[in-house]
Amino acid sequence: MLAIAWEIEKETHRVLQKKYKGTEIKRIYGIKKRRLRLMREPARMRRSIKNAAPSQRESRLNNEIIRPQIRCANKSEAQREARLDDQRQKSQQQCANGSEAQREARLDDLRETAQQRCANEFEVQIEACLSDVSLRSQQRLASESEFEGEEHLLARHQRDHERRDSESEEQ
Question: Is the pTM of this model over 0.70?
Answer without folding.
Answer: no
